[in-house]
UniProtKB/TrEMBL annotation:
<keyword id="KW-0722">Serine protease inhibitor</keyword>
<dbReference type="GO" id="GO:0004867">
    <property type="term" value="F:serine-type endopeptidase inhibitor activity"/>
</dbReference>
<comment type="similarity">
    <text>Belongs to the serpin family.</text>
</comment>
<dbReference type="InterPro" id="IPR042178">
    <property type="entry name" value="Serpin_sf_1"/>
</dbReference>
<keyword id="KW-0646">Protease inhibitor</keyword>
<keyword id="KW-0732">Signal</keyword>
<dbReference type="InterPro" id="IPR042185">
    <property type="entry name" value="Serpin_sf_2"/>
</dbReference>
<feature type="domain" description="Serpin">
    <location>
        <begin position="33"/>
        <end position="393"/>
    </location>
</feature>
<protein>
    <submittedName>
        <fullName>Serine protease inhibitor 3/4 isoform X1</fullName>
    </submittedName>
</protein>
<dbReference type="Pfam" id="PF00079">
    <property type="entry name" value="Serpin"/>
</dbReference>
<dbReference type="InterPro" id="IPR000215">
    <property type="entry name" value="Serpin_fam"/>
</dbReference>
<dbReference type="InterPro" id="IPR036186">
    <property type="entry name" value="Serpin_sf"/>
</dbReference>
<dbReference type="InterPro" id="IPR023796">
    <property type="entry name" value="Serpin_dom"/>
</dbReference>
<feature type="signal peptide">
    <location>
        <begin position="1"/>
        <end position="21"/>
    </location>
</feature>
<dbReference type="GO" id="GO:0005615">
    <property type="term" value="C:extracellular space"/>
</dbReference>
């Protein structure tokens, strides 16, 4: 079974016309997990939705290094990161960690497009963009909106295996555009143990307590990492990809309409990482749906709900350390596009599974995890959530939020 996930986020900047400084790896992972939960909690869970809060964080963290005042405080608070130095050390570490994940295809790329002529990034921010975020820099003639959009969109397509198209529309670029920041992420993984297509059958999926639809459900019985949380009200299932360094984590609410309550608790700071540490390997009967989702998210509407408002203000955006010239700018457009596909394709791993040895609970019968209701799916690299999805089979696979 293959999982393919692609996404891209862009932030467009336009000109306005006349504590402890570092975080350890666990603290950073916890902050990323909580931001991810808050991000997902603001999405419309009645629709198919896929997103990457981590992709958004890469762009927002770079923006934070170019801000001052209220805008700077809002970004740090929302990201759950105490200082600029924590951003530099933390995201440099995250980037290196993600590059080293084995057994999957994972490409994360950052690009800064700058208006041609005398414009450039602030010198300190330019160093951070390259050194911390490994970002490429390119001058573009934004006066020609169609050509500039085509340049950006072609780069995005090349970094996402052509899964994300038309990220930027030409009408958002003009003579007032100064910067476009883009993060692109492409993930492709194969289950370490495949699902047999012959076991895929139509079964009911509960969209809510009143509505069910028949969807293709894949089935396999085998050894998986499993857990239960009474406080969250979920079953937890982790399905490894080849290499066993990346996995799909599924949080299945006990109740058909339980997902909103689960996300509320996670967004409120519930320690999901502690629950992951309690999971153990055991025999599980797994039934999960096939799905494909494409989503476009207007971050200009979502981010203010997370407390990030000032950077969108024309009069006082706080973006005073972005450019090499003293010009007032603001974020005029922020959008994320994402794609994920889950199906049976794949092959078994050729190597034995290695990992932390844990006590195995004795059981006479295997656990059953039947994902027949809305659940939270997270593509994980270790403890870092890369992509999150809430599949609602029966709904349109492509949505704009």
């Amino acid at each position: 079974m293959w999982i393919r996930a692609s996404l891209c986020i862009s932030v467009v900047f336009a000109a306005v016309q006349t504590v402890k400084s570092n975080m350890d790896a666990k603290a950073l992972s916890s902050s990323i997990a909580q931001f991810s939960a808050k991000f997902c909690n603001e999405l419309d869970k009645t629709k198919n939705v896929v997103s990457s809060p981590l992709s958004a964080e890469f762009v927002l963290a770079l923006v934070a290094l170019g801000t001052e005042g209220q805008a700077h405080s809002e970004l740090l608070t929302s990201l759950g990161i105490p200082s600029d130095e924590a951003i530099r050390s933390g995201f440099s570490s995250v980037s290196q960690k993600l590059k080293s994940v084995k057994g999957i295809t994972l490409d994360i790329a950052n690009k800064v497009y700058i208006k041609d002529g005398g414009y450039d990034l602030n010198e300190e921010l330019k160093v951070d963009a390259v050194k911390v975020f490994d970002a490429g820099l390119e001058k573009v003639n934004f006066d020609d909106g169609a050509a500039a959009a085509n340049t950006i969109n072609q780069w995005v397509e090349s970094k996402t295996n052509k899964k994300i198209k038309e990220l930027i529309s030409s009408d958002c670029l003009n003579q007032d555009t100064r910067l476009v920041l883009v993060n692109a992420l492409y993930f492709k993984g194969q289950w370490s143990n495949q699902f047999d297509p012959n076991n895929t059958i139509e079964q009911p999926f509960h969209i809510n307590e009143d509505t069910t639809v028949d969807v293709p459900m894949m089935y396999r019985e085998g050894d998986y990492w499993y857990g239960e949380s009474e406080e969250l009200g979920v079953q937890l299932l982790r399905i490894n990809y080849v290499g066993n360094e990346a996995s799909m984590l599924i949080l299945l609410p006990n109740e058909i309409n339980g997902l909103n309550g689960v996300l509320d608790k996670l967004a409120g700071g519930y320690d999901l990482l502690a629950e992951l540490d309690k999971m153990y390997e055991t025999k599980v009967q797994v039934s999960i749906p096939k799905f494909k989702i494409e989503t476009e998210i207007d971050l200009g509407e979502l981010l203010p709900k997370l407390g990030i408002k000032q950077i969108f203000c024309r009069g006082d955006s706080g973006l005073t350390k972005m450019l090499n010239v003293p010009e007032s700018i603001f974020v005029s457009k922020a959008v994320q596009k994402a794609f994920i596909e889950v199906n049976e394709e794949g092959a078994e791993a050729a190597a034995a599974t290695a990992g932390l040895v844990r006590t195995r609970r004795m059981a006479t019968l295997p656990h059953r995890v039947v994902v027949d209701r809305p659940a939270l799916w997270c593509v994980m690299a270790g403890s870092l959530p890369l992509v999150t999805a809430v599949p609602v089979p029966g709904r349109a696979p492509r949505d704009e939020l």
